[in-house]
Fold these 4 entries.
Entry 1:
Amino acid sequence: MTQRDFNIPNLLTAFRVIFLPFFIYLILQPSQMSRMIAFVVFAFASLTDLLDGYLARRLNQETEFGKFLDPLADKCLVLGAFITFIFLSEQIQAWMVLCILGRDMMITCLRYLAIYQGKRLQTSRLAKIKTAFQIFSIMVILTSFMVLNVPEYNLINQQYHRALEAGLSHWDIAGSNVQRFLHGQYDNFFFGLSSFLPYYLMILTTIITLVSLLRYLFTNYKLLRGPIPVIRPRDEGKN
């Protein structure tokens, strides 16, 4: 790090990492107020993602350290939220989060492979759409935690747990809840919506994430044909 790396945009980026433990602590508390504060913390952290890039360009303070830290902070914030949701909602399955984690790990490997080969990793607009949808999904799921009190949300979890033990799949349970919601069988509108919306949002998030990975692999396939550390090292004599 250099003196130039200590600037306002990079400080805002670092805040996203610093806020994560507080967000996780708050969201895990069995209190609706704590979950409301967690929503505010996440919303503010997400806002810094837009602000740091704008300020870096506006103040001419873009640095290599900032380019490295910004995507890392995004991944920490998003993955931290999704991993926490596994413990809070029966609708969020571990395989969904593992797909998102696996995608980020593979993109990170591609990024370092590009550096190793002295090339540039080709990005796409789909990656930004993926990130935006992930944050949107997290905000909606956090909202479901806020509009329902803890006992009400636990009822949804218990319904899923009992149905899973009876041999039904998450898809079957969510589909059944959609039908009940459309037929007005829920007295509480938000309760009915929260009984299936988090599941479908996570399904869509996972699909978009995997499509984004395939797009990266297709666009950067030449990196996989070039030198790879340990497996197919570059010829140092040519450098």
Entry 2:
Amino acid sequence: MPIDFELSPGSQISQKHYHAIAAEQMRPLSRKYDLAEHQLPTEWVDFWWNEGRKGPEKTSASNDGFVTVCLQAEELCWGDAGLYLRMPTPALGGSAVSAAGTKEQKTKFMSAFRAEGGHPIWGAMAITEPQAGSDSAAIETTADWDPDTEEWILNGTKIFCTAGEGASTVDGGFVVVWATIDKEAGRGGIKSFVVMANTPGMELIGCEKKLGIRASDTATLRFDNCRVPNENLLGSSEVRKKGPTKTGDKGFKGAMATFDASRPIVAAMATGVGRAALDFLKEELERGGIIVRYDAPPRDLTAIERDVIEMEAELRAARLLTWRAAWMMNKGKPNNLEASMAKAKAGLAVTKITQKAVQILGPIGYSKKLLVEKWMRDAKINDIYEGTQQINQLIVARRILNYPSAMLR
């Protein structure tokens, strides 16, 4: 079945809806919370929880499923990527529950996010450790089984947890923690555990001071004899040598499937930031009397025109790769290769686009009088988190060549 790159009427409505939110609710707050790092953007959080998350009015038109999720990410990150990451949502924690949890677990942990009213809550995922970054299989946080209480005991430290502050301290939220239940088993011993906010033994150490996405809370969490009930283990404990045994385990592969869903979203976020810079640059050039001639022969174009056309081509290529990976998710097709391709392309493209926008605009682009320098700072993280540029290129090469990880590092 061919991929249709035309958006459905429902998705077009969603796109306009979220663009309006980005322009009216997010852009006016961009500089304020870039400067006020670690301060909760209450105006935005309250708006999103009470109004924004409801989405556009329901119509009879169909939407494009996961493609629409990526459209939302692009439009809202056109508004502000840091504020997008601070939205009260299940976020990566919810993706992990969806990827590796049972039907009962999905209902239990996700229902609060679907309920009307209440206070804003967050979900987060804790993977990275001081000694384990790109290689998720190298994590050292442990989960030991206590047969007397039928609980897991978590010990270790996690860093760079997006939304970790809200998810760990606001009642109703949760953090999905990756820990090993058997170090000798390697990847087979790694499991995911849902730790509810304010669980004794989970401590918020602090939040990172960052180059970009400064409105986002990127937390360090410590787990010190943190007890988690067995029903909060996502999937099965079958690969262990101790503790209860279940069947149907998705294990490490199930947890890693989280990235097949999250990487297209990150790619869409990158596309949104890149588009923000490119849109603004073109507007400024037009004010200066420079109109890009898309129909002119390359030899007749100015250097600036060639730069802008190249930037736009990079952006569109990233978007199409993103939509392809999202379309495959809709169809239930394995998209590990396509998700990594989209993430790698978009991370590289947005870094180049935003840097070039600052360069073309010159001193005013480098000044904080405009948001362009902020977009350049916000852009770089898209080339790092959810798998660095190098890691995603490795994944692409392994999938194309059909090599195991041991043969291509």
Entry 3:
Amino acid sequence: MTVTARPARLGRDYRLLWSATVASRFGDTLRTPALALLAVALTRDPRTVALVTVAGQLPPLLLGLLGGVYADRWEHRRTMAVVGALRAAVVAGLAVAVALGRAGPALLVLVAVLLATLGALFDAASFALLPALVPTGALPTANGRLQAGTAVAGGFLGAPLAGVLFAASAALPFTVDAVTFAVAALLVLALRPPVDRSAPPSTRTPAGPGTPTDPSAPAGGARRRGALWREAGEGLRWLRGEPVLWRVTLLSAGSNLAISALMAVLVLYALDLLRVPPGGYGLLAAGTILGGLAGALGAGRLAARLGPVTALRWVLLGQAVALTGLALARSPLPGGLALAVFAAGTTVWNSLFAAYGQARVPAGLLGRVGAAQRMVGLVSAPVGAAAAGLAGAAYGVASVIAATAVVTGLVSVVAWRVLRPARPSDGPTTAGTAARPGPPRSR
């Protein structure tokens, strides 16, 4: 008789972190469309409106590695709480300026830059904190539930409510956003100090500010004296020296190229080729969110059944099939089903990608390696969106959807060729060995 192990309980501290993350995401999905609506209300110059959007996208790419450095230098709970309080203050200030009629395009750009920069630090600290709150085997489930919570808060609650609140008062969505950041900060402060799970149970102690939990990491004073970019490079070098995680990161970049291209023209494809009526586009979006939610909730079970690396290969294959179905679809129902399957694969990939890294990266490098993963994985997104716009104008949006299917199929073929589960002897690389990786290992 086969005995199935009961899933590990995620615990009180995980629930607090989950609540803080979901609250922040809810506020983000109120603020982002409200910023766009406010920009349009202030100016009809498309260059200015686009600048507000770009201002919120560039900081994670340009400064994300530095966010990882500070996430590793500082105690994670306090970092997240301070960042939450600062973001609440920034958005509250914007709400006051809007209410007084003093908000101009320059202020919107400044706010977008500040919030995106602080968000990169918050994300790096959150990524590094999670492995200290839940057992390693529960990381796929924990990340999946985070994905599910943010999908519901963003897709079903925040995004539909943003326009309603803005119509009632231009300052209202920013006021609510400030409250969500303050709530998130208070929830994080309620967390107990995490312990180093890599240490023997009899020697585990709470991780304090400036104290690395990884024995191989430099001491706090040495880290403070080190150059920021050198420390940032340590995370990137570690990632480059861990073959499986580096390959998964590059595959994410390839996949994000297709995802960004898809999102750039999706509304045109839905209205013109799937013949979705304008009033029904929200239903198509809701179906996509439901697919993503189902994938997030099933990520832990899929990882337990197949193993995370094998599951990632199957996810890419499923997404390639889904995009092929979308490229062939010419009516709302099959197109909506294809999008739902694709969205499910995206949330499973995100959950397992994060969990795999969190389980293998030394605790003292988690912030920097997580930031490096996100930077490398997302660097292709602006390229995909720009290419989709140019190709759509020249050859039509149907060609863009077909191209995304081809790109995802190629990424899937590469994944099946290069991704192999790590051998039991392949433990996490230390910071010291990452700078000089040995000969490539055959997997």
Entry 4:
Amino acid sequence: MIHLELSAQHQGLQDQLKMVAEHMMRPYSRKYDREEHSEPVELAEVAKLLSGARGAGSNAAAGDKQEPEPGVVKNGGNLMSVTAYEALCWGDVGLMLSMPGRGLGNAAISAVGTPEQKEKYADSYAAMCITEPGVGSDSANISTTAVLDGDEWVINGEKIFVTAGERCDTLVVWASLDRSKGKAAIKSFIVEKGTPGCEVTRLEHKMGIRASDTAAISFTDCRIPKGNILGSADIADDEAGRKKAFGGVMQTFDNTRPPVAAMAIGVARAALDLCQELLAKEGIALDYAEKGVQLTAIEDELYRMESEWHAARLLVRRAAWMADNGQPNSMEASMCKAKAGRMGNYVTLRCVELCQGLGYSEEHLLEKFARDSKIIDIFEGTQQIQLLIVARRLLGKSSSELK
């Protein structure tokens, strides 16, 4: 059964990483927020510490498929991942995304890669290339193509909003083998940076997470080895096969959405902590022994935000725990992403408003927390897409039946 509290091992990791966030990330928050696209070289050692903690804490990495064992409860790489993301994003979301190490592409390789691919790219820093101009949230309509030519795939197309697209060394690229066959022909491919025909064309200027590079990447007759496809190259002819094929590609999201949701948990906790610290100086402090009728309007709102935060965190942990224990978690992954993304946006912005001038100024980090939180509700599937997925699961509807 699931336990709602962290194990001593996971709690120890979170405590250590929160110290890292406070003393090795927060001091650089303003610097790299202002110096957009500058690489935060000070975080190289932090990344090494995180890599060591991850290796020591679990034999499984986030995104690894776990087989259920009767009577055995695992708290593995997925739960460790959300625990780490929460702690580090309490420090700074943009800097966490900028640390060299495991990117979203690594989760894809771990989820559906062959043993040889996992071994070869175990130490790579892999970004995920999905979004395209004019496609938006509908991943089934991507136009990037991959054509087999002898022993090589030839990729052509353009990807945008690629997190860590410039600093990574490996890309996981979604492309279609045959656009006439729809989503059944969509596969993912491993492309190493520096491959001829693969080019970073620009870096985006953003409202938040400015420390993180967000790139546009073009592929022009980009040739990669035949073995760099993730999963099978077969295209199913029947409806059931097509659903299964695309479902395998989409499986990556079931493992990456909980960690992204954990980012919202971390930054919302940072905003709540700072907001309460500033309000306490004005004589407004929470006393959990008080009855509801005795609360001021501000105290009541703080309590409500605390309850929303706890609810979102429990959803995130449940989705990660299910992945660790080999349980299907597609609906739960979407639930936690939708809830945490919305909660993070509301809490961080409301904390800015409650602290008035101090919240809006750059004297404190509250306004930055609010700017950074917005993207979490958008990338890795918008809140609206997550709610649509949940509705389909609850109602037993297909994507064609409920749009």
